[in-house]
Design a protein that fits this description.
The chain is of the alpha+beta class. Helix content is 42%, strand content 24%. Strands 7, 8, 10 and 13 form a 4-stranded antiparallel β-sheet that branches. Strands 3-2-5 form a 3-stranded antiparallel β-sheet, with no helix packed on it. A 3-stranded antiparallel β-sheet has the order 14-15-16. Strand 7 and strand 8 (81-85) form a beta hairpin. Helix 3 (183-199) packs antiparallel against helix 4 (204-218). The longest helix is centred in the C-terminal third of the chain and has 81 residues, at 245-325. The radius of gyration is 57 Å and the shape is rod-shaped.
Length: 385
């Protein structure tokens, strides 16, 4: 359309005489200022928006989307905060809202090892110092890592450079915004202070032996993190070295010697295990041998017992037969027993004589055994021997 100013009318200064209407849709709203009352209103009715007389478009605002793991903070002109949680709907769809009039989206400046430009370009430097401040408008509630490099000193005055990671997360956004404007910086610097104090209580050798335990003890101050609405999950030391070159050389020698000692101990442990297995096998073999000897002795004893019973039975039967044969010819029982004893002694002597004649044994007899007398011729004047 073509418009001609009427009498006493001029185009508004500082603004183009002709402007396009704003297309209000699901993603777009218009913040309008009334020049008559000074009030602002947010227009969200969909369609083309034309300002009325004495109205001015202050800003065209886009829809603010909040992911399920995020929280956005809006502050009004009275300083009150409104928290928009992405999971406030009870599902995983997130949330979306338009910033009301006289309100703004709170922008926090958090410490970071990555610059603002790198953050916009999605570049992760993994820097170990929080050397930058980056704007944060949506609080990420997911656990996140921060890298660190701290200089600490042990109780024996050895300066060390520690590298590692901090695993932490925001748990309570209202408490966090109340207590701190830089939760990541608070976590980073407090972890450094706690680790410096913990390392200063031990010497170098104790630190080398239990640095993970020392790091866990340094992360045990839950009250500091809880009052700031954050949680520290872990403080892990991934690498350490001496700040001084000479000390680092000595430390490398200590580490090398420790490694050699561990290798020697492992070798000795292996040798001991081999020797233990050999001794165990020998002991088991001797036990089996003892069992074999005991079994053989028991079998031999049983065999001799059976042979003895057989021999005794045979002698008993022979004796009984001998006595029965003499019942008629020798009526006297005492005489029969005397004859039995005589024949038994003769059989024993015969057996002994047979053994002596067939074996290699030597028989020594005294004169009394054979009733032998030796007498020599006596010469006058000679002494008896």
């Amino acid at each position: 359309a073509v418009i001609f100013p009427a009498a006493h009318e001029v185009p508004a200064e500082g603004n183009p005489a002709v402007r396009n209407a704003v297309n209000v849709d699901d993603e777009t709203a218009v913040l309008v200022l009334s020049l008559q009352t000074g009030q602002q209103r947010l227009v969200t009715d969909q369609g083309l928006f034309f300002p009325q007389p004495l109205e001015e478009i202050v800003e065209v605002r886009k829809l603010v989307r909040v992911e399920p793991h995020e929280v956005a903070i809006v502050r009004d002109n009275k300083g009150a905060f409104t928290f928009h949680a992405g999971n406030g709907t009870g599902d995983e769809s997130g949330a979306a809202f338009h910033i009301p009039p006289f309100s703004e989206l709170v922008t926090m400046m958090w410490s970071s090892g990555t610059s603002k430009e790198d953050v916009k370009a999605n570049v992760v430097r993994n820097a170990k110092q929080v050397a930058y401040k980056v704007p944060v408008q949506k609080i990420d509630l997911r656990p996140q890592y921060a890298f660190f490099e701290y200089k600490v000193r042990t109780s024996d005055n050895v300066e060390l450079v520690l590298e590692g990671t901090i695993f932490w997360a925001v748990k309570d956004v209202p408490r966090m915004i109340e207590r701190t404007g830089d939760p990541k910086g608070d976590v980073w610097y407090h972890a450094r202070s706690a680790l410096i104090q913990a390392v200063s209580k031990v010497d170098l050798l104790e630190f080398m032996a239990s640095f993970n335990t020392i790091a866990r003890a340094a992360a045990a101050d839950e009250a500091f993190y809880e009052e700031r609405g954050v949680k520290l999950y872990s403080l892990e030391v991934t690498r350490y070295e001496c700040a001084d070159g000479k000390t680092a050389s000595v430390l490398q020698e200590i580490i090398q010697e420790t490694t050699n000692r561990i290798n020697r101990m492992q070798k000795q442990r292996s040798d001991n295990e081999v020797e233990h297995e050999e001794l165990t096998a020998k002991i088991e073999r001797e036990k089996q041998r003892s069992a074999l000897i005991e079994a053989q002795a028991a079998n031999e004893k049983l065999q001799k017992s059976v042979e003895g019973e057989s021999e005794g039975t045979r002698l008993a039967q022979n004796t009984l037969a001998f006595l029965r044969q003499l019942n008629v010819s020798v009526p006297d029982a005492q005489e029969r027993l005397s004859l039995l004893r005589f024949f038994s002694e003769q059989a024993t002597l015969t057996k002994q004589t047979e053994h002596l004649s067939t074996g290699t044994a030597s028989l020594f007899l005294t004169p009394q055994d054979v009733n032998l007398k030796i007498q020599g011729a006596h010469r006058p004047g000679a002494a008896y021997v």
